[in-house]
Design brief:
Blueprint lengths: L2 E3 L5 E4 L2 H14 L6 E5 L3 H13 L4 H6 E5 L1 E3 L9 H10 L18 H15 L7 E5 L24 E6 L3 E6 L1 H5 L3 E6 L5 H9 L19 E5 L8
Parallel strand pairs: 2-10, 3-4, 3-6, 6-9, 9-10
Antiparallel strand pairs: 1-2, 5-8, 7-8
Helix pairs in contact: 2-4
Length: 240
Protein backbone atom coordinates (compact mmCIF):
# COMPACT_ATOMS: atom_id res chain seq x y z
CA UNK A 1 0.00 0.00 0.00
CA UNK A 2 1.30 3.46 -0.87
CA UNK A 3 2.39 5.79 1.93
CA UNK A 4 3.00 9.53 1.91
CA UNK A 5 5.81 11.06 3.98
CA UNK A 6 6.08 14.88 4.02
CA UNK A 7 9.73 15.99 4.24
CA UNK A 8 11.86 19.14 3.96
CA UNK A 9 12.65 18.22 0.35
CA UNK A 10 9.09 17.46 -0.76
CA UNK A 11 6.57 14.68 -0.38
CA UNK A 12 7.92 11.13 -0.53
CA UNK A 13 5.44 8.64 -2.01
CA UNK A 14 6.41 5.14 -0.90
CA UNK A 15 5.18 2.54 -3.37
CA UNK A 16 6.38 -0.45 -5.39
CA UNK A 17 8.57 0.20 -8.41
CA UNK A 18 5.93 -0.54 -11.04
CA UNK A 19 3.43 1.68 -9.22
CA UNK A 20 6.04 4.45 -9.25
CA UNK A 21 6.50 3.95 -12.98
CA UNK A 22 2.73 4.12 -13.47
CA UNK A 23 2.60 7.39 -11.52
CA UNK A 24 5.40 8.89 -13.61
CA UNK A 25 3.62 7.84 -16.81
CA UNK A 26 0.40 9.37 -15.50
CA UNK A 27 2.15 12.67 -14.89
CA UNK A 28 3.75 12.62 -18.32
CA UNK A 29 0.40 12.04 -19.96
CA UNK A 30 -1.43 14.56 -17.78
CA UNK A 31 0.81 17.49 -18.64
CA UNK A 32 0.20 17.32 -22.39
CA UNK A 33 -1.78 20.28 -23.70
CA UNK A 34 -2.34 22.15 -26.94
CA UNK A 35 1.25 23.39 -26.79
CA UNK A 36 4.35 21.19 -26.75
CA UNK A 37 5.69 20.50 -23.27
CA UNK A 38 9.26 19.69 -22.28
CA UNK A 39 10.54 16.77 -20.24
CA UNK A 40 14.04 16.29 -18.90
CA UNK A 41 14.71 12.58 -18.47
CA UNK A 42 17.43 11.15 -16.24
CA UNK A 43 20.20 8.61 -16.62
CA UNK A 44 20.84 5.42 -14.69
CA UNK A 45 19.39 1.96 -14.28
CA UNK A 46 15.96 3.01 -12.97
CA UNK A 47 15.10 5.21 -15.98
CA UNK A 48 16.20 2.39 -18.29
CA UNK A 49 13.85 0.07 -16.45
CA UNK A 50 11.08 2.67 -16.82
CA UNK A 51 11.63 2.81 -20.58
CA UNK A 52 11.21 -0.96 -20.85
CA UNK A 53 8.14 -0.89 -18.61
CA UNK A 54 6.55 1.99 -20.56
CA UNK A 55 7.01 0.13 -23.83
CA UNK A 56 5.61 -3.11 -22.45
CA UNK A 57 2.61 -1.38 -20.87
CA UNK A 58 1.94 1.08 -23.73
CA UNK A 59 1.89 3.58 -20.88
CA UNK A 60 2.50 6.79 -22.83
CA UNK A 61 -0.31 8.18 -24.94
CA UNK A 62 0.05 9.02 -28.62
CA UNK A 63 -0.42 12.71 -27.75
CA UNK A 64 2.34 12.52 -25.13
CA UNK A 65 4.80 11.06 -27.62
CA UNK A 66 4.05 13.65 -30.30
CA UNK A 67 3.56 16.77 -28.15
CA UNK A 68 6.49 16.37 -25.78
CA UNK A 69 9.96 17.78 -26.37
CA UNK A 70 12.33 15.18 -24.91
CA UNK A 71 15.61 16.14 -23.20
CA UNK A 72 17.87 14.76 -20.48
CA UNK A 73 18.65 16.73 -17.35
CA UNK A 74 22.34 15.86 -17.51
CA UNK A 75 24.69 14.16 -19.93
CA UNK A 76 28.16 12.73 -20.24
CA UNK A 77 30.38 14.27 -22.90
CA UNK A 78 30.21 11.25 -25.20
CA UNK A 79 28.55 10.53 -28.58
CA UNK A 80 24.90 9.46 -28.55
CA UNK A 81 25.90 5.99 -29.75
CA UNK A 82 27.97 5.47 -26.59
CA UNK A 83 26.59 3.18 -23.89
CA UNK A 84 27.42 6.00 -21.44
CA UNK A 85 25.07 8.50 -23.14
CA UNK A 86 21.93 9.29 -21.14
CA UNK A 87 20.09 10.57 -24.20
CA UNK A 88 21.35 7.59 -26.17
CA UNK A 89 19.70 5.26 -23.66
CA UNK A 90 16.47 7.26 -23.85
CA UNK A 91 16.55 7.11 -27.64
CA UNK A 92 17.27 3.38 -27.84
CA UNK A 93 15.02 2.40 -24.94
CA UNK A 94 12.01 4.67 -25.49
CA UNK A 95 12.05 7.22 -28.29
CA UNK A 96 13.12 4.97 -31.18
CA UNK A 97 10.81 2.03 -30.38
CA UNK A 98 7.83 4.36 -29.89
CA UNK A 99 8.49 6.38 -33.04
CA UNK A 100 9.09 9.80 -31.48
CA UNK A 101 9.92 12.19 -34.36
CA UNK A 102 13.32 13.84 -34.63
CA UNK A 103 11.95 17.35 -34.14
CA UNK A 104 10.85 16.35 -30.60
CA UNK A 105 14.33 15.15 -29.61
CA UNK A 106 16.79 17.59 -28.04
CA UNK A 107 20.09 15.94 -27.05
CA UNK A 108 22.96 17.98 -25.66
CA UNK A 109 25.42 18.94 -28.48
CA UNK A 110 28.20 16.68 -27.21
CA UNK A 111 30.15 17.02 -30.45
CA UNK A 112 31.44 20.33 -28.99
CA UNK A 113 33.81 20.86 -26.09
CA UNK A 114 32.03 20.80 -22.70
CA UNK A 115 31.96 24.57 -22.19
CA UNK A 116 30.78 25.24 -25.74
CA UNK A 117 28.20 22.44 -25.56
CA UNK A 118 26.72 23.84 -22.33
CA UNK A 119 26.62 27.38 -23.72
CA UNK A 120 24.98 26.22 -26.96
CA UNK A 121 22.37 24.20 -25.10
CA UNK A 122 21.60 27.06 -22.72
CA UNK A 123 21.38 29.52 -25.63
CA UNK A 124 18.92 27.23 -27.42
CA UNK A 125 16.80 27.18 -24.27
CA UNK A 126 16.88 30.95 -24.00
CA UNK A 127 15.57 31.26 -27.54
CA UNK A 128 12.90 28.66 -26.94
CA UNK A 129 11.82 29.53 -23.42
CA UNK A 130 13.43 32.54 -21.69
CA UNK A 131 11.76 32.03 -18.29
CA UNK A 132 11.06 28.31 -18.12
CA UNK A 133 13.16 25.18 -18.05
CA UNK A 134 11.59 21.70 -18.20
CA UNK A 135 7.86 21.47 -17.58
CA UNK A 136 8.70 18.16 -15.87
CA UNK A 137 12.22 17.27 -14.74
CA UNK A 138 12.85 13.63 -13.87
CA UNK A 139 15.82 12.97 -11.60
CA UNK A 140 17.45 10.10 -9.77
CA UNK A 141 19.36 10.13 -6.50
CA UNK A 142 22.84 8.65 -6.20
CA UNK A 143 24.15 6.68 -3.25
CA UNK A 144 26.30 9.76 -2.54
CA UNK A 145 23.23 12.07 -2.63
CA UNK A 146 24.01 13.55 -6.06
CA UNK A 147 21.26 14.65 -8.43
CA UNK A 148 21.74 15.25 -12.14
CA UNK A 149 25.50 15.96 -12.34
CA UNK A 150 25.61 18.05 -9.18
CA UNK A 151 28.08 15.90 -7.25
CA UNK A 152 29.38 16.25 -3.66
CA UNK A 153 31.80 19.16 -3.70
CA UNK A 154 30.64 20.35 -7.14
CA UNK A 155 31.60 24.05 -7.56
CA UNK A 156 28.26 24.73 -9.27
CA UNK A 157 26.39 24.20 -5.99
CA UNK A 158 25.57 27.55 -4.43
CA UNK A 159 27.45 29.51 -7.09
CA UNK A 160 25.66 32.78 -7.97
CA UNK A 161 24.75 33.97 -11.44
CA UNK A 162 24.92 30.62 -13.22
CA UNK A 163 22.96 29.85 -16.38
CA UNK A 164 20.30 27.14 -16.31
CA UNK A 165 22.65 24.59 -17.84
CA UNK A 166 26.42 24.29 -17.37
CA UNK A 167 29.46 22.04 -17.70
CA UNK A 168 31.33 20.55 -14.75
CA UNK A 169 34.27 18.18 -14.43
CA UNK A 170 33.47 15.42 -11.96
CA UNK A 171 36.78 14.15 -10.52
CA UNK A 172 37.44 10.66 -11.76
CA UNK A 173 34.29 10.64 -13.91
CA UNK A 174 35.08 13.20 -16.57
CA UNK A 175 33.16 16.17 -17.89
CA UNK A 176 29.40 16.38 -17.51
CA UNK A 177 26.69 18.70 -18.79
CA UNK A 178 23.96 19.40 -16.27
CA UNK A 179 20.98 21.40 -15.19
CA UNK A 180 21.94 23.82 -12.41
CA UNK A 181 20.06 25.17 -9.42
CA UNK A 182 18.97 28.09 -11.64
CA UNK A 183 17.48 25.58 -14.07
CA UNK A 184 15.79 23.56 -11.35
CA UNK A 185 14.23 26.76 -10.04
CA UNK A 186 12.58 27.28 -13.42
CA UNK A 187 11.20 23.75 -13.82
CA UNK A 188 7.44 23.36 -13.55
CA UNK A 189 7.62 20.13 -11.56
CA UNK A 190 10.34 17.75 -10.41
CA UNK A 191 9.96 14.00 -9.89
CA UNK A 192 12.75 11.94 -8.32
CA UNK A 193 12.81 8.16 -8.72
CA UNK A 194 14.60 6.32 -5.89
CA UNK A 195 14.85 2.55 -5.57
CA UNK A 196 16.82 0.12 -3.42
CA UNK A 197 18.35 -0.06 0.05
CA UNK A 198 21.61 1.47 -1.18
CA UNK A 199 19.76 4.80 -1.51
CA UNK A 200 18.20 4.81 1.96
CA UNK A 201 20.93 6.79 3.74
CA UNK A 202 21.13 9.32 0.91
CA UNK A 203 17.36 9.84 0.87
CA UNK A 204 17.31 10.41 4.64
CA UNK A 205 20.21 12.88 4.43
CA UNK A 206 18.54 14.83 1.64
CA UNK A 207 15.07 14.89 3.19
CA UNK A 208 15.81 15.09 6.92
CA UNK A 209 19.52 15.72 7.51
CA UNK A 210 21.32 18.87 8.59
CA UNK A 211 21.58 21.31 5.69
CA UNK A 212 24.86 20.75 3.85
CA UNK A 213 24.17 20.78 0.09
CA UNK A 214 27.86 20.72 -0.83
CA UNK A 215 27.99 17.32 0.88
CA UNK A 216 24.46 16.18 -0.03
CA UNK A 217 23.61 17.91 -3.34
CA UNK A 218 20.06 16.59 -3.40
CA UNK A 219 19.31 19.00 -0.56
CA UNK A 220 19.18 21.86 -3.08
CA UNK A 221 15.68 20.58 -3.88
CA UNK A 222 14.50 21.82 -0.48
CA UNK A 223 14.30 25.31 -1.99
CA UNK A 224 11.45 24.13 -4.24
CA UNK A 225 9.92 21.41 -2.07
CA UNK A 226 6.36 22.36 -3.08
CA UNK A 227 7.00 21.17 -6.63
CA UNK A 228 9.17 18.15 -5.80
CA UNK A 229 7.74 14.63 -5.61
CA UNK A 230 9.80 11.61 -4.59
CA UNK A 231 8.71 8.18 -5.80
CA UNK A 232 10.56 5.71 -3.57
CA UNK A 233 10.22 2.03 -2.84
CA UNK A 234 10.08 0.62 0.69
CA UNK A 235 13.81 -0.17 0.79
CA UNK A 236 14.83 3.35 -0.24
CA UNK A 237 12.42 4.93 2.27
CA UNK A 238 13.31 2.59 5.14
CA UNK A 239 15.17 5.24 7.15
CA UNK A 240 12.55 7.99 6.90
Amino acid sequence: MARLIPTLAGDVHVLPRDAAFAELARRLNAQVSARPVSVGLSGGSTPKAFYAWARAQSALSFETLLRTDWHVSDERCVPLRSDDSNFGHAARGLLDPLGVPALRRHPWPTEFTPAVAAEAYDDAWTRRSPRRAFDLCVLGLGDDSHIASLWPGCPLIGAPGLPRFAATEWPGRGWRLTITEAGLAQCGAIVVLVNGKSKAAALRAVCEGDLAPATHPGQVLRAWSAKVTWLADEEAAALL
